[in-house]
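Hi V.,

Quick status before I head out on leave. The structure for the redesign project is tokenized and pasted below; the design run finished overnight.
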């Protein structure tokens, strides 16, 4: 009844196939070995340089188009690694390809996809054209190519770029890989001051922290007058508090409006909140903050200061959220490990004074001259002798979701454990076994 057949005049190709044909056609405009520079002895720059067994140094990047002898070797800038996922030398090549050969790529593209625009995708088709050629054979491997690969590798993976930094907001130590989308990156003070004033107040205001978490009767409350030497020392925030630079307001633009024009109500409110924040102190971790204007010595934070912000905190700050891990969100505890070492807290004292246990600690008794000595009576982190024991230790992942739920329930119902823990509570957490070892 129906005579259905394919019309041979129609191109039955998917968008993916058409784009692949663009790359295959574009590959004909490139040299046979697109990853190699042009032969300097070839006047037309159509042949690749293949004398690579001698180990000579190749250009770090070079253009693969026939008739183009361009190569790059620009000075590397630190922020180029952070602002773009590609290597700075590849960024240089991309700039050249788009500006010099963008029109040639556009002509090939419109031949297959006349109704679409190639704008912004020239670099992608160029890389795909190189892939088309390289898949036809084995890539060139030689000492010169290895040297070029090492040049790229050393620029990213080295002791100067890969480092550990402490987050300005949450004080957690994270690894800076020195590239785009690193777990922690250096931001400018201008970036911080351009955040919402309410976000800055919630996550960095020392005044807010004192109002909510340093009330009388709390462990962080100020004790005594602060001038009497016999007073009990209160918490020392001197190393964790800095002041916005006095000229910060002059270098930031509140809402992008002309300062000479009448301010809107919303802009005026934002200005007032920003002025309030700039007049207060900032509670943060300034350990790895650096600046060329000697701000670190003066405990200032200007728009040019470089501050490390971890990716987790950065996303929440830009979304105008309260960062749960921020120091100003009741997470400040100062130099606790130093205090434990200085005071000489024993393991038993820690056991008695700790509200919650989230793990298991195994102690043994050391045999020495004069009798036995139990390690629970030793000072923490100050072992004075070796301890020998024989046995096996096993570990298993703990049910953290259940533990957090229990802690939340205790806080919600105000079921607090009295400290110090004595009697049955201490006995339920500590099991003492007596065994004679010969």
């Amino acid at each position: 009844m129906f005579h259905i057949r394919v019309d041979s005049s129609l191109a039955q190709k998917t968008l993916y196939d058409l784009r692949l044909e663009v790359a295959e056609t574009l590959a004909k405009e490139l040299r046979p070995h697109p990853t190699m520079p042009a032969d300097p002895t070839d006047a037309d720059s159509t042949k690749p340089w293949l004398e690579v067994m001698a180990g000579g140094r190749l250009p770090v990047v070079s253009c693969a188009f026939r008739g183009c002898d361009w190569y790059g070797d620009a000075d590397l800038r630190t922020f180029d690694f952070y602002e773009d996922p590609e290597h700075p030398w590849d960024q240089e090549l991309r700039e050249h390809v788009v500006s010099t050969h963008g029109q040639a790529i556009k002509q090939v593209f419109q031949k297959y996809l006349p109704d679409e625009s190639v704008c912004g995708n020239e670099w992608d088709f160029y890389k795909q054209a190189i892939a088309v050629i390289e898949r036809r054979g084995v890539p060139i491997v030689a000492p010169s190519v290895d040297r070029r690969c090492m040049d790229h590798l050393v620029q990213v993976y080295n002791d100067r770029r890969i480092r550990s930094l402490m987050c300005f907001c949450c004080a957690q130590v994270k690894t800076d890989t020195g590239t785009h989308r690193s777990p922690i990156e250096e931001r400018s003070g201008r970036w911080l001051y351009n955040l919402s004033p309410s976000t800055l107040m919630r996550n960095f205001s020392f005044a807010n922290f004192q109002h909510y978490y340093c009330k009388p009767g709390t462990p962080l409350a100020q004790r005594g007058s602060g001038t009497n030497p016999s007073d009990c020392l209160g918490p020392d925030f001197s190393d964790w508090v800095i002041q916005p630079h006095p000229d910060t307001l002059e270098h930031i633009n509140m809402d992008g409006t002309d300062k000479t024009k009448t301010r809107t109500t919303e802009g005026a409110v934002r200005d007032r909140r920003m002025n309030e924040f700039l007049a207060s102190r900032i509670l943060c971790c300034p350990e790895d903050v650096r600046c060329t204007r000697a701000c670190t010595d003066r405990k200032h934070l200007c728009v040019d200061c470089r501050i490390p912000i971890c990716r987790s905190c950065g996303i929440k700050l830009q979304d105008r959220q309260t960062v749960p891990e921020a120091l100003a969100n009741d997470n400040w505890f100062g130099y606790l490990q130093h205090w434990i070492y200085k005071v000489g807290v024993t393991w038993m004292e820690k056991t008695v004074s700790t509200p919650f246990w989230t793990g298991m600690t195994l102690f043994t008794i050391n045999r020495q001259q004069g009798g036995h000595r139990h390690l629970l009576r030793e000072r923490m982190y100050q072992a004075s002798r070796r301890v020998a024991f024989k046995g096996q230790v096993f570990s298993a992942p703990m049910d953290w979701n259940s533990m957090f739920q229990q802690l939340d329930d205790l806080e919600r119902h105000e079921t607090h454990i009295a400290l110090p823990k004595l009697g049955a509570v201490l006995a339920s957490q500590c099991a003492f076994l007596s065994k004679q070892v010969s």
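Above is the designed sequence. The longest strand covers residues 184-188.

G. will cover questions while I'm gone.

Best,
W.
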